[in-house]
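To: structure desk
From: M.T.
Subject: fold request, one chain
Message: Could you run this one when you get a chance? Sequence is below, nothing fancy, just the single chain.
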Amino acid sequence: MMRTILLTLGLALLSFTVFAQTQTNDPKLEQRLQQLVKGFNGDVGIYVKNLKTGRSAGISADSIFPTASMVKLAITAGVFNQIDKGQLDYKSVLTYKDSLLYAGEDILGSFKNGEQIALSKVLMLMITTSDNTASLWAQSLAGTGTAINDLMAQYGLTYTRVNSRTPGRQENQKKYGWGQTTPKEMATLLTLIRNGKLINEAASERIYRNLIRIYFDQEALSQIPPYIQAASKSGAVDEARSEVVLVNAPHGDYVFCITTKNQKDTSWTPSNEGWVLIRKLSRMLWHYYEPASSWVPAAGMDKYNLN
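Reply: Done. Structure tokens follow.
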């Protein structure tokens, strides 16, 4: 009788241990996310994962949202894929032409016809300053959106796609703009880069180095101490705001992606509801994963915001 009881208890303990090891969701964080987005005037998608424990949480994490400039993460992957195949040379010098211009305040767009620039600098500008002229040039060099989308599919990313200037994706472009993704897939793409699993280890490292040098750091990155390394890419259009961030935190890396669409607030000021939500999420996650940290942004940082 006693042996039967002990065996039953042992099996129950083993079952609980296996369950605890395979439990990947974080109910406490899930609840906090739900509270965070309550009352938001628009649609929100969030995915968060602690890369040390594997535990995750999300809201509409598998729903499709516009990428805006986050699509440049997929574009840079496409270019490095061409470099890996020997179709492009990272150290090559390219010639800028006026036909490449995408009107705006881009650095590359200020070049004169015939000026030269290294491919490495084009890729840096695309990520670091989110230069649209550089990005569309890079999209072409990558073999167009078709080749980039094929690459995303190879990595199991079903919904992360380039729509603009990509044959057969006109309807998607009308709905989502330049690109589309899900919060979980965009976070997965950044994690592949962090782990050296995109293209190859060297290409991933080079891409990651660009991603930790972001000029537009006034949203999610502003809520993470400046002495903590974080890789990120953000995006924004009138009715949508987004950012994907991987934080190399002291107690373990974590990644998160937040995307919005159908926002009622289409303003371009720091008080935009989408940007406020991104900052709140980033701040909450930093203190969630680093509860002993007392860091807060320095007083007066508002006057250094870029928007």
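Reply (cont.): The chain is about 40% helix and 15% strand. Let me know if you need anything else for the meeting.
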